[in-house]
Specification:
The chain is 55% helix and 14% strand. It is of the alpha+beta class. The strands form 2 sheets. A 7-stranded mixed β-sheet has the order 2-1-3-9-8-5-4, with helices on both faces. A two-stranded antiparallel sheet has the order 6-7. A hairpin with a 3-residue loop joins β1 and β2. α6 packs parallel to α8. It is rod-shaped. The two termini are 67 Å apart.
């Protein structure tokens, strides 16, 4: 477990709880799921010794449950937020995964599977406890920025100021985690656009149905994931309003509300984008089958016209193929040409009739369509 003492002037890593913590200071206890799972009771005793608050058994089960959805709960002593973030360690790089489209061009493919892991936040007075997977990029980047502020505090150029409360630090972490979902928009949109072009290409059949179904499943998963995150953050906002509403420092309370509303707005953008992409896939599939039905209708209309043209010609040839001793024009030297001319004239008359009745359209015979 890593312990940080954060104040308005500096951020320092410590090994044990200080004797006194002023109103301008707070503690950040950072640990991993592996450390908690190694000895749950020892971890709880350590937290109780640092904060004086006992973590309840149901919440311990939630902390060690790696499949737990986004969730918020609170007691008289503390509040708990479970937030599912992208597991970037198990994700391939979006730009590194390359696939070939119908024109044999290399194009970037979006993340194939949406792997996530929970991050648990415990707000206990002036202490924030985070429990996350090992090698969390978001947490490591935040820790480095905070410690970098301590290193540069004597210089003329400082980094962004440290958070002034555990709630603000938690919201900064949550905002960075949500932004990772926003970064999925570009590769996901590029992949959906590629499939749309392939679905609407009449010259090549579309064969990536399993990949398209997998993408729709992942988008539905992202939709449900965002809804759970949104519900948890809205309950957290209500909790902050109730707890901080009577606080003397209204500026700090307003700042927290601004930050949490910003995080909620980012989650709403992810949710809306996932729904738009899912709707785009369904619309493209519907248009694809509509085009296939239209193409089939055009082919059937062309075949029907050809059949209608050849039916009287077949009748004429059938009549002249009868085994009678005498047929009109059969012995005539010009009978063949008269019959051919009559057949051509009949075809022309039928074509003009079909064109007048709009049974025949130019695009039905246009090979480029």
């Amino acid at each position: 477990m890593d312990i940080f003492l954060i104040s308005r002037q500096q951020v320092s890593r410590i090994t044990e709880r200080p004797a006194d913590i002023s109103d301008e200071e707070f503690l950040w206890l950072d640990t991993t799921h592996d450390e908690v799972a190694a000895d749950v009771q020892a971890w709880r005793s350590t937290v109780e010794g640092m904060t004086g608050v006992h973590v309840y058994d149901p919440h311990l089960l939630d902390i060690t449950n790696l499949s737990h959805p986004s969730y918020f709960d609170s007691t008289q002593d503390y509040a708990m937020v479970v937030f599912r973030k992208l597991d970037l360690n198990n994700q391939p790089e979006a730009q590194a995964v390359q696939v070939e489209d119908s024109s044999k061009r290399k194009v970037p493919q979006a993340l194939a599977k949406l792997a996530t892991k929970p991050v648990t936040f415990l707000l206990i007075g002036r202490t924030l406890i985070t429990i996350h997977a090992a090698r969390s990029r978001t947490v490591e980047a935040t820790r480095n920025r905070l410690l970098d502020y301590k290193h540069k505090r004597d210089g003329s150029l400082n980094t962004a100021r440290p958070p002034v409360s555990p709630e603000e630090l938690m919201l900064r972490l949550l905002n960075a985690m949500v932004d990772q979902y926003l970064e999925l928009r570009q590769p996901l949109t590029a992949q959906i656009d590629r499939w749309q072009r392939a679905l609407l290409n009449p010259r090549r059949p579309f064969n990536d149905w399993l990949a398209l179904l997998d993408a729709r499943i992942e988008l539905r998963k992202l939709d449900q994931l965002s809804e759970g995150q949104l519900d948890a953050l809205q309950e957290l906002r209500d909790y902050i309003v109730d707890v901080k509403g009577n606080h003397d420092d209204r500026k700090e309370s307003d700042l927290l509300l601004v930050r949490i509303n910003d995080v909620i707005e980012h989650i709403s953008r992810v949710l809306n984008h996932a729904r738009r992409l899912e709707s785009s896939i369904e619309s493209a599939v519907q248009i694809h089958f509509s085009l296939m039905a239209h193409r089939t209708s055009e082919i059937m209309r062309t075949l029907t016209v050809i059949t209608a043209l050849f039916m009287p010609l077949t009748l004429i040839t059938g009549i002249f193929g009868m085994n009678f001793d005498y047929l009109p024009l059969l012995k005539d030297r010009a009978g063949f040409w008269i019959t051919i001319g009559a057949m051509l004239l009949l075809v022309i008359v039928m074509l003009l009739y079909f064109r007048q009745k709009r049974y025949l359209e130019d695009r039905a015979f246009d090979s480029r369509k």
